[in-house]
Write a sequence for this structure.
């Protein structure tokens, strides 16, 4: 695979390999086939963007990686270690794969600092004192100083999302799993989020599995964009974004970006039409 | 009906014609007795109802097992328990406390359970992602997440507690505000009835204010997130 060379440091961990993933919901009843025959390999330190029609099964795949539910069959490996597979249908959730949720899941009853410090304290890898110190430092790095003692409910949704990503990075995960984290944000806040995410990424080189409906976001951030088929989901087309990192917002106006946009749009549109037709059939 | 002046004059009289005012020791005896009964019943209801509700909300198996019984007992009005309570317990104190406790316990348990159910699944998932174990999730996610509902339950518990207390005291007992009102009725003494009622209103209001104060001090995050505070 000829992935775009990564900026500066080269990540050595976070190699995610999904083989023949297959997921049926409610096999005895409605038997919804959400993921079928889905294979995908993501390189260490890659930003892999997942797009596809609504309800095609993207979240289902992410939940299987995170260990929130089982796969009906198929195997997922992370750095050679089997997360789930034959004999072990459900992965154990763990701090090596941290999910950032669409609606945000900072604990509203903990301050931002307590939220960021939460992981290592729970795992027992740091004393509460150490964890708070490191949390303070990593928040400062991400430009979040001054809101350590605020509650998530007291800060804007954009800043909340950043705190949540920092809370994840605090655990030094191998993979970040993001499920439309910026969906609810306005486009201006979104653009700030994108640059902030890239900045964090350039410093941490973590593998990112990022689900989105926003094609511009997908191409702007991703090394590759995986366009999923309509349900059941599997990669229909994988687009390598050959615009070098580090990127900033000026690439949005480049001709290459427009070309990639058109190419993605076409593939996505095709699937969207299929999904729509399938919806019509089902009533 | 007596005018408000008659009631008020009686209430603050050093030598009350109907025998009850803020200068008579009995007045405080009655208030104290009622407050004590409610405090014991409310305390027990909280001590038992919160853990019970948390367990019902947290453990599917426990709920399947216990909740049906709970749901059959819960609709029985506290008053319907009076005869059984009097026969079951000796003396006058225990039956009244039991009658007060019962609906308070149900309200606390039910709201606590709903509080656990109200917690967004993604908080629990996030905690698992961050490496928390089940017991840690209970302590750091389930308990604080259910707290707003728990305190709603405690408010209701306090309300229904006073309600049933008065009913219990009217039927059995020789002290307490319910007894004051009832004896005012048997003696056709309007001012005594009114004093009993007003006093109940006051102590009821103070007790729910106390619950609220404890609630807001334990849930600063809510006060601050919802902008309910004074900004200090
Ligand atoms: N717990 C469940 N039980 C039964 N069916 C489910 C369940 N969860 C999801 N589904 C179905 O599986 C399919 C895939 O759902 P999924 O949430 O993975 O889609 P998605 O690609 O994330 O969609 P969106 O883009 O809207 O978030 C949908 O048709 C959905 O209705
Ligand atoms: Mg989804």
């Amino acid at each position: 695979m000829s992935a775009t060379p990564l900026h500066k440091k080269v990540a050595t961990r976070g190699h995610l390999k999904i083989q023949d993933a297959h997921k049926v919901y409610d096999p005895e009843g409605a038997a919804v086939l959400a993921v079928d025959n889905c294979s995908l390999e993501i390189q260490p330190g890659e930003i892999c963007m997942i797009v596809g029609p609504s309800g095609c099964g993207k979240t289902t795949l992410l939940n299987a990686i995170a260990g929130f539910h089982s796969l009906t069959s198929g195997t997922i490996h992370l750095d050679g270690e089997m997360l789930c597979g034959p004999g072990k249908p459900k992965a154990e959730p763990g701090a090596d794969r941290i999910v950032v949720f669409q609606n945000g899941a900072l604990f509203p009853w903990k301050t931002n600092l307590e939220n960021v410090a939460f992981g290592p304290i729970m795992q027992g890898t740091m004393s509460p004192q150490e964890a708070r110190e490191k949390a303070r430092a990593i928040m400062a790095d991400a430009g979040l100083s001054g809101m350590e003692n605020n509650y998530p409910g007291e800060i804007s949704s954009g800043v909340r999302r950043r705190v949540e990503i920092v809370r994840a990075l605090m655990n030094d995960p191998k993979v970040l799993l993001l499920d439309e984290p910026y969906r609810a944000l306005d486009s201006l806040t979104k653009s700030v989020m994108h640059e902030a995410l890239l900045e964090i990424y350039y410093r941490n080189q973590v593998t990112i599995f990022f689900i989105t409906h926003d094609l511009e976001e997908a191409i702007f951030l991703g090394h590759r964009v995986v366009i999923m088929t309509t349900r059941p989901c599997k990669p229909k087309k994988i687009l390598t974004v050959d615009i070098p990192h580090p990127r900033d917002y000026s690439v949005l106006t480049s001709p290459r970006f427009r070309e990639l946009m058109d190419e993605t749009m076409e593939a996505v549109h095709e699937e969207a039409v299929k999904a729509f037709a399938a919806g019509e059939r089902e009533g | 009906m007596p005018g408000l002046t008659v009631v008020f004059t009686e209430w603050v009289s050093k030598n009350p014609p109907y025998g009850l005012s803020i200068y008579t020791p009995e007045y405080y005896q009655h208030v104290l007795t009622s407050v004590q009964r409610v405090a014991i019943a409310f305390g027990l209801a909280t001590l038992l109802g919160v853990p019970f509700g948390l367990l019902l909300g947290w453990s599917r198996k426990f709920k399947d097992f216990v909740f049906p019984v709970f749901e059959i007992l819960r609709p029985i009005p506290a008053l319907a328990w009076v005869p059984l309570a009097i026969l079951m317990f000796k003396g006058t104190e225990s039956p009244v406390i039991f009658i007060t406790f019962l609906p308070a316990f149900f309200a606390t348990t039910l709201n606590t359970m709903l509080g656990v159910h109200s917690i967004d699944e993604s908080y629990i998932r996030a905690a698992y992602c961050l490496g928390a174990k089940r017991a840690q999730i209970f302590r750091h996610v389930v308990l604080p997440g259910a707290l707003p509902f728990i305190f709603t339950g405690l408010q209701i518990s306090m309300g229904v507690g006073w309600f049933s207390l008065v009913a219990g005291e009217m039927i059995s007992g020789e002290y307490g505000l319910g007894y004051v009102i009832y004896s005012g009725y048997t003696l056709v003494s309007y001012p005594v009835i009114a004093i009993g009622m007003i006093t109940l209103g006051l102590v009821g209001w103070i007790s729910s204010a106390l619950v609220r104060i404890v609630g807001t001090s334990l849930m600063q995050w809510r006060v601050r997130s919802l902008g309910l505070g004074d900004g200090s």
Q: What stands out?
A: Residues 216 and 223 of chain B are 7 Å apart (CA to CA). The domain at 4-223 of chain B is CATH 1.10.3720.10 (MetI-like fold). Chain B touches chain A through 25 residues (CB under 8 Å). Residues A 58-59, 179 surround magnesium ion (ligand 2) (CB under 6 Å).
